[in-house]
Amino acid sequence: xxxVTQTPRNRITKTGKRIMLECSQTKGHDxxxxxxxxxxxxxxxxxYSFDVKDINKGEISxxxxxxxxxxxxxxxxxxxxxxxxxxxxxxxxKQAGGSGELFFGEGSRLTVL
Amino acid sequence: QQQVKQSPQSxxxxxxxxxxxxxxxxxxxxxxxxxxQQFPGKGPAxxxxxxxxxxxxxxxxxxxxxxxxxxxxxxxxxxxxPGDSATYFCAAIRSSNTGKLIFGQGTTLQVKP
Lengths: 113, 113
What we know:
The structure holds 2 protein chains of 2 kinds.
Chain A: E1 4-7, E2 10-13, E3 19-25, E4 31-38, E5 42-51, E6 54-57, E7 65-70, E8 73-78, E9 87-94, E10 103-104, E11 108-112
Parallel strand pairs in A: 2-11
Antiparallel strand pairs in A: 1-3, 3-8, 4-5, 4-9, 5-6, 7-8, 9-10, 9-11
Chain B: E1 4-7, E2 10-14, E3 19-25, E4 33-38, E5 45-50, E6 56-59, E7 62-67, E8 72-77, E9 86-92, E10 102-103, E11 107-112
């Protein structure tokens, strides 16, 4: 089983719908991140969390919200999806301290029509 | 100051050739520079990383060259193979900060047989 699991892997939805992307990890890492990948723009940070009680905005948090339900679970929500949120979304984890290496899930491809 | 600029956006190399991807940064507080490799349908995974106290790091066919004064670093893939075909991201982080990795725009490498 993957250390960082994202669900769903693919989702097509309509403008205005609420969407939740879920992430769970078995690595025991404290830090969890949500990134968005768009062609030509690389990976951009949406939100990050250092523990269950610590949630922080990244560089592109508008239109998104997150919930850290447990150390191992971090979900990303789009309250009212719009077409320019069509992208590939990645969850990642990192051990506090250490080298800075992020461990990524396999991604969730979201299409908003 | 938080940007990492990566070029080229795409690269085609013949098998056995050298692939070179370049990155530039502005923030001199960055102190860890990793490269991530991403295969289609997968999340990025750490390939190789360098700290600014060395000018070069080599791991097998992969080498990072680091020029602190120019604020540039590059990835060299020697004897490129079709299995190296992937998207490559450079990144930078200020380790003493929040652990937020700043990614470049990505380079799609195709190695032709």
